[in-house]
C-alpha cells in the first residue's frame, strides 16, 4: 500500500506534520524540534525509497483519487525528479539537524514552533512542485512555497528581515502572477493543464495561436526567472538570504531557488519541444543573462564585507551557471545543470551553515573579523573551506564535476566562449572565497572569540555535508549514470545537438 | 617497450600522502618521533622511487589505473622520464628533510610544516608518474594548495602577501590547465599523452588557444616571464628547506608539463602540413626562454638578498630549460639535442639549486642574516660552508667536471644545431644571449659567495660555528652527485638522456650524435672562461657603479604589465558595477523617479506656502491707487484756489506713489519666488538655510534608523521600478520572439 501511494504520502507527510506541530507544539516546546526532525527524516527515507523504485522501474506515475489526466492530477517521478527530490529532502533534513540546537539561540523562543511548521510546509511544497505533473498543481505549490519562504525570512521580526521579507514576498508574488498568466494562456489555447497533454496539444495550438503560445512561454520564463533570481531580476535575493536566520538562509539559497529551476526544466523539456525552443531567441537571451549574472554576481560578491551577503551574491552567480547549462541546449550541459543544482545545494547550505556558526562564535558578520576562527573551531572552518574550494572547482570535489559537465557541454554546443566564462568566473570565485579560508586558518584573531562547544547535531550535519561534497565529486558516476538515460531521452527526440 | 601493471606508482604517491597522517600522529608523541617518522617516510618513498627506476630502466613501462575515480579513472604511467625524475624528486626531498630537522628546530608550527611538507611530496611525485593530463592536474592542484602552507609558514605580513600572489596566480594557472583538459577531453575523448594536434585542428579549435592556456597553466609554475612575479616573492619567504624544494623541484613540474605536452601532445610528424604550428611554438619558446633567462639573471645581479638572488637565478635557469625545450620543438624529429638539454638541465638544476638554497639556509641558521650587504668575512668561521658553496657555484656556472657543465654544453649544441639546420640569423642572436647569460650567472653567483665569505665582516661573527655533521653529510651527497655527473659527462648522458630520447620519434642519427657530445673539446672547455670574463667585467661595473643602479619601479613587470592589466580590469569592473548599480536602475526607474520628483516638489511647495506669511507691507490695489490719485487731483483742483501747486509738484507726487507701488510689488514677487523655488534669497537667506540643514539632518536620521540607503542601487530599488523592469523584459521578449 505504501509503495503504491508513496508519492502523495511524501508530499502529505510534512504538510500534516506541520499542522500537528502547530496543534501540539503550542503546549510542548520541545515537541516541535523533535517531531520536525523526525518528520523530515521520515520524508527523507521515503524519498530514498522513491529513488530506489525509480531506479528499478525507470518512471513512476500516480493519479490522485484514481482520476486519470486530463481530468485528474498526476504525480510523476523520473530519474531527474527523483534526483532533485533526494537533494531537497536530504539537504533539508541535515539543515534541520544542524538547527536542532542552534536555532533556539538564534530566533525568539516563542516562534520556534511556528518556524518548524513553516519549514515543513515549505518542504512539502518543494516536494510537491517537483513531483507534480500538472501545471495548476505546480502553481499552487509555488504559491505555498513562496509564502512559507518569505515567512522564514521574517521569522525573527527585526526591521531588516521584515523589509527583506516584504521585498521578497512582493517580488515572488509578481513572479507567480506572471507564471499564472502564462498558465492561463496555455490553458486558453489548449484546454489542458497536465504537462503531457499540453505537450501533445501544443503543436496544433501553436499553429492556430502562435502569438499566444509565444507570449505564454515568455510569461512563464520571466516569471520563473524572477523567482529563481536570474540576473537582472535577482534584486530581492541578497537581502532576503542575507538577513534570514542561518537555517533559513541555507535552505533558501540551497533549495528554494532551485525548485523554480526544476519547474523550468519540466517546462522546457516536457512541454515545449526542443526544436521549437531552438528556433526562438530564447537560448541567446538565457545565455546572455546567465553570463551577466555569473560575472556581476561574482563581482558584487567580491565587494561585500558581510559574509552572508557575499554568500547570497555568490548564489546569484551560481544560479547563472545553472541557467547557462540549461540554455546551452546540449546533453552534457544539461547534465551539468542538474548536477550543479545538486552540488550547489549541498555546498551553499554547508557554506551558510558554517558561516552561521562562525558568526555565532565571533559575534561579527564582517569577513575581516572572521580571522583565526579555524584554530578554535576547526569543523565549521573546514566545512567552509571545502565548500569554498568546491565552489572554485577544485577536484575532486562535487563542484568540480558540475563545472566539468558544463564545460564539456559548452564545447559540445560549439560555444567555446562559455568555457572561458566558466574558467574566468571560477577565478573570481577564488577571489572572494579564498580570503576567508586564508584568514580563518592563518591570520590572527581580530575579535574575541567565544569558547563554546559546537552542538553535536551541527557537527554531524556539517561532517555529512563535507563527506557528501567529497563523495559526489569522487563517485559522481553513480548519480550521472542514473541521470544520463533521461537526459539522453530528451535530446534523442531532438536529433542530437544543434 | 613493454607495459606492466604495477602498484608501485600508486605506492609512490600513497606513501607520502598517507605518511602525512603518520607524521601528525607521531607528533603527539614528541618531536623526536615525528622527525624520525618524517625521515622514514621520505626514505621509504626514495627507496620506492629507486625500485621503480630499476624496473623501468630495464625497458618496461609501469601502468596502473584506479577506474571509476571521478569517472575518468586515475591513471599512472611511468616511463623512463617519469621514473628518473621521481628519483630526483624523492632524493632532493629526502636530503632537504634531513637538513630541515635542525633548521626547523627553533621554528613555530613544526608539525604543520612537516605534515604539509610530506603531503606536498605526494602531489609533486604524482605529477611525474601521472598517466594522463587529468591525473597530472589532480596531483598538480594537490601540490599547489599544500605548498601554499609552506610558503606562508612565517605568517608575517610579507609572507602572507607573497602567499596571496602565489595562490591566486596558481589558481588562475590551474584553471588555464583545466581549460586545456576540457579541450583535449572534448577533442580526443581522453587526456592521455598522445599526439593530438591533427585532431585539434580537425575540430576547428585553434592550437594557439591551447598553447596560450598551456602557458598559463604550466608557465606560472615554471616561473616563465611574465608569469614569474610570484616566484621571487614566495621562494625567499618560505623556510630554507621549503625554498629548496619549491625552487628545485616544484617549478620543474611546469617544465615537465611543457615537455610532455609540446613534445608529444602538440606534436606532428615532420613534413605534415601542421608542422608549421609546432615550429612556431618552438620558436616562441626559444624567445620566451631567452628573455626569461636574461632578465632573471639581470635581476639576480641587482638584488641583495641571498635568497632573492637565488630565486631570480631559478627563473633564469628555467629560462635555460624553456630555451632548450623550444629549440627541440622547433626542429621536430631533429630536435634530440634540445630535448636532451632540457631534460639534463632539469635534473642538474634540481640538484644544484636545492644545494644552493640549503646552503643559504645554513648560512641563515648560523648567522641569522640573509642580506648580502650585512654579511661578509665568514670564510674564517665557515670554511667548510665556503667549500661547499664553491662547488655549487662551479656547478651552476658550468665549470667542467661539475654537473651544470654537462647540460649547458648540450643546450649550446642544441641552439647551434638549430642554426645549422635552419640558418635563421635570429638563432645566432639567441645563441649570443645564451652565452652572455652564462656570464651573468657567473656574476651573480660570484657576488653571493664573495659578499658572504670574503670582504670585511659587517658584524661580530665570533659566535658563528661551521656546519654540523648532518648538514655536512647532506652537502657531501650533493657534491658527490655533482662530481659524478660532471666527471662522467658522456656516461651521464648515455644513462640518463638516451633512454629518455629514445621514447620520442627522434632522428636516429641525432641520437647517435648524442652519444658523442664533444664534452672535452677545446672550445667547450674554454666556455667557462668566457663566462667568468663577462662576470669579472659585470662585477667590476657593479662594484664601481652599483650604488647608482636602482631599477626604477616603473620598469618592473608588475608595473608594466600587471598594474596596467589590473587597472584595466578594475576600471572594467567598476564600469560594470556602475552600470548595474546606478545606470541601469536609473534608466529603468527614470519614469517613476520623475513622478516622485514632481510629487516631492508639490509637497514641498504646499508646505512652504502653508508656512508663508504675507510680508508686512500695505497692499494697495491699483484701483485704490487710482482712487487716491483722483482724490489728490480733486484736492488739488480744490486747493488751486487756496495755494497753487505747480504742475511739477503734482508730477513728483505721482511719481513717488508709483515708485512705492512698484517697489512693493517687486518685493512681493521676490517673496513668492522664494517660496516656490525653495531657494531663499535676500533677507530670508539665513532662515532658509537653517531649515534646509535641518531637513538634511532629518533625512539622514531617518535613513539611519531605517538602515536605508538614500541613493539608488539594485539592493534597495523600489518595487515599482522592478515592475517596470519585468514589464520591459516581457515586452522585449515578445518583440524579440516576434520580430
Blueprint of the fold:
The complex is a heterodimer of chains A (498) and B (739).
Chain A lengths: L5 H20 L3 H29 L2 E4 L10 E4 L1 H28 L5 H20 L3 H20 L4 H32 L4 H14 L1 H18 L8 H8 L2 H26 L2 H5 L3 H22 L3 H21 L3 H32 L10 H4 L1 H15 L5 H15 L3 H27 L13 H19 L2 H16 L6
Antiparallel strand pairs in A: 1-2
Helix pairs in contact in A: 1-2, 1-4, 2-3, 2-4, 3-4, 3-10, 3-14, 3-19, 4-5, 4-10, 5-6, 5-10, 6-7, 6-8, 6-9, 7-8, 7-10, 8-10, 9-10, 9-13, 10-13, 10-14, 12-13, 12-18, 13-14, 13-18, 14-16, 14-17, 14-19, 14-20, 16-18, 16-19, 17-18, 17-19
Chain B lengths: L1 E4 L2 H20 L3 H26 L3 E7 L7 E5 L1 H24 L6 H20 L3 H19 L5 H32 L8 H6 L4 H16 L8 H7 L2 H26 L9 H28 L3 H26 L4 H32 L15 H15 L5 H20 L2 H29 L15 H19 L1 H13 L6 H7 L7 H24 L11 H32 L1 H22 L10 H21 L4 H31 L7 H22 L12 H20 L1
Parallel strand pairs in B: 1-2
Antiparallel strand pairs in B: 2-3
Helix pairs in contact in B: 1-2, 1-4, 2-3, 2-4, 3-4, 3-10, 3-13, 4-5, 4-10, 5-6, 5-10, 6-8, 6-9, 8-10, 9-10, 9-12, 10-12, 10-13, 11-12, 11-16, 12-13, 12-15, 12-16, 13-14, 13-15, 13-17, 13-18, 14-16, 14-17, 15-16, 15-17, 16-20, 21-22
What does this structure look like?
The complex is a heterodimer of chains A (498) and B (739). Chain A has a domain at 275-498. Chain A is 79% helix and 2% strand. Chain A contains 20 helices and 2 strands. Chain A has helices at residues 6-25, 29-57, 79-106, 112-131, 135-154, 159-190, 195-208, 210-227, 236-243, 246-271, 274-278, 282-303, 307-327, 331-362, 373-376, 378-392, 398-412, 416-442, 456-474, 477-492; strands at 60-63, 74-77. In chain A, helix 4 (112-131) packs antiparallel against helix 5 (135-154) and helix 13 (307-327) runs antiparallel to helix 14 (331-362). The mean pLDDT of chain A is 86. With 739 residues, chain B is an all-alpha fold. Chain B has 3 domains: 1-131, no CATH class; 132-551, no CATH class; 567-738, no CATH class. Chain B is built from 26 helices and 3 strands. Chain B has helices at 8-27, 31-56, 80-103, 110-129, 133-151, 157-188, 197-202, 207-222, 231-237, 240-265, 275-302, 306-331, 336-367, 383-397, 403-422, 425-453, 469-487, 489-501, 508-514, 522-545, 557-588, 590-611, 622-642, 647-677, 685-706, 719-738; strands at 2-5, 60-66, 74-78. A 3-stranded mixed sheet of chain B has the order 1-2-3. In chain B, helix 5 runs antiparallel to helix 6 (157-188). Chain B starts with a strand and ends with a helix. The model of chain B is unreliable at 678-685 and 706-717 (pLDDT under 50).
Amino acid at each position: 500500500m505504501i509503495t503504491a501511494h508513496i508519492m502523495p504520502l511524501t508530499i502529505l507527510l510534512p504538510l500534516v506534520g506541520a499542522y500537528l506541530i502547530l496543534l501540539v507544539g503550542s503546549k510542548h516546546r520541545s515537541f516541535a524540534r523533535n517531531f520536525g526532525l523526525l518528520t523530515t527524516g521520515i520524508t527523507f527515507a521515503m524519498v530514498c525509497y522513491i529513488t530506489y523504485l525509480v531506479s528499478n522501474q525507470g518512471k513512476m506515475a500516480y493519479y490522485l483519487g484514481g482520476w486519470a489526466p486530463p481530468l485528474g492530477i498526476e504525480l510523476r517521478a523520473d530519474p531527474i525528479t527523483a534526483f532533485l527530490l533526494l537533494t531537497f529532502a536530504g539537504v533539508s533534513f541535515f539543515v534541520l539537524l544542524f538547527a536542532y540546537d542552534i536555532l533556539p539561540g538564534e530566533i525568539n523562543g516563542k516562534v520556534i514552533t511556528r518556524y518548524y511548521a513553516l519549514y515543513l510546509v515549505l518542504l512539502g511544497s518543494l516536494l510537491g512542485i517537483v513531483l507534480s505533473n500538472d501545471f495548476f498543481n505546480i502553481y499552487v505549490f509555488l504559491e505555498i512555497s513562496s509564502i512559507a519562504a518569505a515567512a522564514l525570512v521574517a521569522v525573527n521580526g527585526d526591521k531588516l528581515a521584515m523589509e527583506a521579507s516584504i521585498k521578497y514576498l512582493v517580488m515572488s508574488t509578481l513572479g507567480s502572477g506572471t507564471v499564472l498568466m502564462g498558465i492561463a494562456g496555455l490553458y486558453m489555447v489548449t484546454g489542458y493543464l497536465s504537462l503531457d497533454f499540453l505537450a501533445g496539444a501544443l503543436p496544433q495550438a501553436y499553429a492556430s495561436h502562435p502569438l499566444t503560445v509565444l507570449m505564454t512561454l515568455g510569461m512563464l520564463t520571466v516569471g520563473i526567472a524572477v523567482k529563481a533570481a536570474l540576473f537582472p531580476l535577482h534584486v530581492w535575493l541578497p537581502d532576503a538570504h542575507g538577513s534570514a536566520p542561518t537555517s533559513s538562509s541555507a535552505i533558501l539559497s540551497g533549495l528554494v531557488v532551485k525548485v523554480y529551476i526544476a519547474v523550468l526544466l519540466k517546462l522546457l523539456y516536457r512541454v515545449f519541444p526542443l526544436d521549437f525552443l531552438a528556433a526562438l531567441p530564447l537560448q541567446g537571451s538565457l545565455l546572455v543573462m546567465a553570463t551577466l549574472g555569473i560575472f556581476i554576481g561574482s563581482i558584487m560578491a567580491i565587494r561585500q564585507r558581510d559574509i552572508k551577503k557575499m554568500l547570497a551574491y555568490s548564489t546569484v552567480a551560481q544560479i547563472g551557471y545553472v541557467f547557462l547549462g540549461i540554455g546551452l541546449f546540449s546533453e552534457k550541459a544539461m547534465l551539468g545543470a542538474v548536477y550543479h543544482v545538486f552540488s550547489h545545494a549541498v555546498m551553499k547550505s554547508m557554506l551558510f551553515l558554517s558561516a552561521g556558526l562562525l558568526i555565532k562564535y565571533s559575534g561579527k558578520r564582517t569577513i575581516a573579523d572572521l580571522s583565526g576562527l579555524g584554530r578554535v573551531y576547526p569543523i565549521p572552518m573546514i566545512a567552509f573551506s571545502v565548500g569554498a574550494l568546491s565552489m572554485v572547482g577544485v577536484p575532486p570535489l562535487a563542484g568540480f564535476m558540475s563545472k566539468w559537465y558544463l564545460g564539456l557541454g559548452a564545447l559540445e554546443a560549439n560555444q567555446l566562449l562559455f568555457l572561458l566564462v566558466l574558467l574566468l568566473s571560477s577565478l573570481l570565485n577564488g577571489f572572494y572565497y579564498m580570503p576567508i579560508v586564508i584568514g580563518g586558518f592563518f591570520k590572527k584573531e581580530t575579535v574575541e572569540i567565544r569558547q563554546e562547544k559546537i552542538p553535536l547535531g551541527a557537527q554531524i550535519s556539517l561532517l555529512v555535508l563535507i563527506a557528501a561534497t567529497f563523495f559526489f565529486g569522487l563517485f559522481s558516476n553513480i548519480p550521472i549514470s542514473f541521470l544520463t538515460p533521461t537526459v539522453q531521452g530528451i535530446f534523442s527526440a531532438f536529433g542530437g545537438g544543434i | 617497450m613493454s607495459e606492466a601493471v604495477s602498484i608501485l606508482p600508486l605506492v609512490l604517491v600513497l606513501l607520502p600522502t598517507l605518511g602525512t597522517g603518520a607524521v601528525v600522529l607521531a607528533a603527539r608523541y614528541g618531536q623526536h618521533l615525528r622527525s624520525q617518522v618524517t625521515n622514514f617516510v621520505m626514505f621509504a618513498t626514495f627507496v620506492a622511487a629507486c625500485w621503480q627506476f630499476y624496473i623501468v630502466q630495464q625497458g618496461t613501462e609501469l601502468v596502473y589505473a584506479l577506474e571509476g575515480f571521478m569517472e575518468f579513472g586515475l591513471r599512472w604511467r611511468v616511463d623512463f622520464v617519469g621514473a628518473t625524475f621521481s628519483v630526483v624528486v624523492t632524493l632532493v626531498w629526502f636530503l632537504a628533510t634531513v637538513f630541515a630537522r635542525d633548521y626547523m628546530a627553533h621554528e613555530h608550527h613544526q608539525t604543520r610544516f612537516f605534515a604539509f611538507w610530506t603531503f606536498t611530496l605526494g602531489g609533486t611525485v604524482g605529477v611525474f608518474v601521472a598517466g594522463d593530463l587529468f591525473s597530472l592536474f589532480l596531483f598538480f592542484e594537490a601540490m599547489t594548495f599544500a605548498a601554499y602552507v609552506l610558503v606562508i609558514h612565517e605568517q608575517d605580513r610579507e609572507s602572507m602577501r607573497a602567499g596571496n600572489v602565489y595562490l591566486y596566480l596558481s589558481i588562475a594557472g590551474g584553471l588555464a590547465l583545466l581549460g586545456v583538459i576540457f579541450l583535449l577531453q572534448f577533442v580526443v575523448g581522453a587526456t592521455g599523452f598522445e599526439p593530438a594536434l591533427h585532431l585539434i585542428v580537425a575540430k576547428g579549435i585553434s592550437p594557439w588557444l591551447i598553447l596560450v592556456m598551456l602557458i598559463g597553466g604550466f608557465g606560472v609554475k615554471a616561473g616563465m616571464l611574465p608569469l614569474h612575479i610570484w616566484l621571487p616573492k614566495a621562494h625567499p619567504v618560505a623556510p630554507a628547506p621549503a625554498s629548496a624544494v619549491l625552487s628545485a623541484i616544484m617549478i620543474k613540474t611546469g617544465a615537465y608539463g611543457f615537455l610532455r605536452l609540446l613534445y608529444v601532445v602538440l606534436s606532428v610528424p615532420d613534413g605534415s602540413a601542421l608542422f608549421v604550428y609546432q615550429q612556431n611554438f618552438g620558436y616562441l619558446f626559444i624567445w620566451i626562454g631567452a628573455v626569461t633567462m636574461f632578465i632573471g639573471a639581470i635581476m639576480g645581479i641587482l638584488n641583495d638578498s641571498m635568497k632573492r638572488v637565488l630565486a631570480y637565478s631559478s627563473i633564469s635557469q628555467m629560462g635555460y630549460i624553456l630555451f632548450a625545450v623550444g629549440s627541440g620543438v622547433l626542429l621536430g624529429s631533429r630536435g634530440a639535442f634540445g630535448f636532451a638539454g632540457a631534460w639534463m638541465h632539469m635534473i642538474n638544476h634540481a640538484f644544484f639549486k636545492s644545494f644552493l638554497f640549503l646552503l643559504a639556509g645554513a648560512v641563515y641558521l648560523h648567522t641569522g642574516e640573509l642580506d648580502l650587504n650585512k654579511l661578509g668575512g665568514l670564510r674564517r668561521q665557515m670554511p667548510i660552508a665556503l667549500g661547499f658553496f664553491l662547488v655549487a657555484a662551479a656547478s651552476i656556472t658550468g665549470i667542467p667536471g661539475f654537473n651544470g657543465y654537462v647540460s649547458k654544453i648540450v643546450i649550446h649544441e642544441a641552439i647551434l644545431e638549430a642554426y645549422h639546420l635552419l640558418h635563421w640569423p635570429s638563432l645566432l642572436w639567441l645563441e649570443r644571449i645564451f652565452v652572455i647569460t652564462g656570464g651573468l650567472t657567473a656574476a651573480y653567483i660570484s657576488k653571493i659567495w664573495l659578499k658572504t665569505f670574503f670582504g670585511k665582516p659587517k658584524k661580530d661573527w665570533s659566535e658563528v660555528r661551521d656546519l654540523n655533521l648532518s648538514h655536512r653529510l647532506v652537502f657531501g651527497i650533493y657534491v658527490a652527485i655533482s662530481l659524478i655527473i660532471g666527471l662522467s659527462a658522456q656516461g651521464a648522458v648515455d644513462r640518463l638522456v638516451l633512454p629518455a630520447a629514445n621514447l620520442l620519434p627522434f632522428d636516429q642519427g641525432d641520437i647517435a650524435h648524442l652519444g658523442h657530445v664533444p664534452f672535452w673539446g677545446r672550445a667547450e672547455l674554454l666556455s667557462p672562461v668566457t663566462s667568468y670574463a663577462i662576470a669579472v667585467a659585470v662585477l667590476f661595473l657593479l662594484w664601481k657603479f652599483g650604488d647608482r643602479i636602482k631599477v626604477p619601479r616603473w620598469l618592473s613587470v608588475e608595473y608594466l604589465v600587471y598594474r596596467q592589466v589590473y587597472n584595466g580590469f578594475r576600471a572594467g569592473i567598476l564600469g560594470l558595477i556602475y552600470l548595474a548599480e546606478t545606470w541601469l536602475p536609473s534608466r529603468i526607474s527614470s519614469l517613476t523617479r520623475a513622478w516622485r520628483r514632481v510629487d516631492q516638489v508639490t509637497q514641498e511647495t504646499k508646505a512652504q506656502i502653508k508656512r508663508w506669511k504675507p510680508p508686512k507691507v500695505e497692499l494697495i490695489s491699483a484701483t485704490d491707487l487710482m482712487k487716491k490719485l483722483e482724490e489728490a487731483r480733486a484736492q488739488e483742483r480744490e486747493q488751486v484756489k487756496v495755494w497753487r501747486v505747480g504742475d511739477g509738484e503734482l508730477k513728483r507726487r505721482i511719481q513717488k506713489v508709483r515708485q512705492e507701488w512698484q517697489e512693493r510689488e517687486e518685493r512681493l514677487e521676490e517673496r513668492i519666488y522664494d517660496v516656490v523655488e525653495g531657494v531663499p534669497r535676500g533677507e530670508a537667506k539665513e532662515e532658509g538655510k537653517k531649515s534646509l540643514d535641518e531637513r538634511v539632518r532629518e533625512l539622514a536620521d531617518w535613513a539611519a534608523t531605517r538602515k536605508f540607503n538614500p541613493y539608488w542601487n539594485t539592493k534597495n530599488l523600489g518595487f515599482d521600478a522592478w515592475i517596470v523592469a519585468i514589464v520591459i523584459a516581457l515586452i522585449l521578449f515578445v518583440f524579440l520572439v516576434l520580430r
